[in-house]
Amino acid sequence: MKKLSLIIGVLSSSIAIAQVGISTSNPQSTLDITAKNATGSTTSVDGLLVPRVDRQRAQSMKSIQTSTLIYINNISTGTQTGTAIYVDAVGYYFYDGAAWVKLHSPDNVAPIGNSLNIYNSNGTLTGNRTVSQADKTLAFTSTATTGTNHFSIDDNTLSVNTVNNRIGFGTTNPNGIVDISVDNKGENTENDFYFGGYGTSKNPAMIFRSASGTEAAPGNLNMDDDIGSIYFAPRANGNFNTTFGSGIISKYRGNGITVLTDLSLRTSNQERLRIDENGNVGVGTSSPQTKLHVISANTPNSYRYNLIDAPSTNGNGVILALRNTSPLATGNMSLLGFTNSGTTSGGANWAIGSIRTGTSTTNGNLEDFYFGNSTGGTLVERFRIKGDTGNMGVGTSTPQRRLHVNGGLQITNELNVGGNATTAGNAGNAGQILTSSGAGAAPVWKDAAAAQSEVNIADVKFHYINVNSRDNGTYTLDATNGPNYTIWVSRPRSSGTDVNLPAPETQQRRTINIIAAGDGSDNYPVKVNQPLYITDSQSISQIPAGKRVTLLASNTFGARWYVIMKDF
What we know:
mainly beta; single chain; 37 strands; 4 helices; about 575 residues
């Protein structure tokens, strides 16, 4: 009774001052329990034992005060329902007014407070949160073997497929390492992808890197290895087919040491354009030989390589410009070449374009239009139009008239003179001759008699030769003789040649009259040693007795003697 009274007295006095101390005479709180042996190696037990119950007992309690503390020592009894809904392991629990809540985890880890957390329950964030990692890492791991959406933000805003190591933006089922999809979000900017760079980070880039080996031990690429591709795949026939769409592909063209690459453009599963490692551009070929190399498909409609249209308004033209940017120098060329020598030919057999005639910066006047060809060596000039005068030269680079021909000139049809921009001019009548009208005026066609009547006889001198061929044989006109000879054959031979004319190519513009006289009884014609051309297809070889011809040696219209006048 004395001990009990003492305890009651102590408690009564402690209650009076609202603080109770056990093993201490100076309690610091409502209940202050001080260990008997706060230090040292004694084996006696210090501590506080709270009531120990099983889950069934905790589940059966009624009228529980908030903050009541118990220790669940057995969860094989009762069920995880009601006030024991969170009781799933042995450990300390406190009552929060609605249920028993775990005080700490059973695995002796740091206290985590309320067991209702993101690891075992859904919830709502009640405020802004910041995770400071300091020098620690934050990792999410998954052992999933099925499914596609193992980590996500707002469902499909960001979705991670850990089974296939894929990331989806706008989709929970990514088809590749990164899959970005926009599903009916609107037009324009809702479908666009931006790569921004500002200040010292301007000029953002998208880089495709390729190597053999592994990421930890990458190796050099081999010739023709793909470096990267961008494909455009429309949906057709029930699927997306990147192989038969369009694409941009880069291949490695080096030897494992050199950094050489090419780039190809494909449409409808066919390569259309290739830029090789040297910067050559090929259209229709994957191995261009020059800066621009075009090969057509073997179809009739594919032989037109370029079609350039002018704007659909008046006064516009189409110009394909070739410019030589070398320093100005006489002889510089800017040419368009043509050849039929095959795909391996490096040069042009024919070329047209501009040739420089001086070093002044003046445009136009010092640029002639040029035609030339090559048979394996350098180009040989064939035709030129002067830039300052518009004169055209054939066989000459310095034409003196609107048309200057250095060499023979053949006319197989009519020769028109006079006329203007809308009329063809006069072709003359049969038997007429062309006479000069003087400098600056067009020549005119005239009848032979009228033309002869206008000739100033004093200005035309003929050397006269009388030939009696019957007695003296054939007469040969010396090629060195002067021009304008009249040969009178008084007695032509009955057979053989009466007059041997020199080769016409040595007698340029030489004029000869041949008169066949005869003696009235023989009536033999005068015979010459070569054809006398009336036209390109009609010629004579003899002059009837009593008749005459006037001949002109011409090398311009072919090396021939031409009949410019006859009276038969």
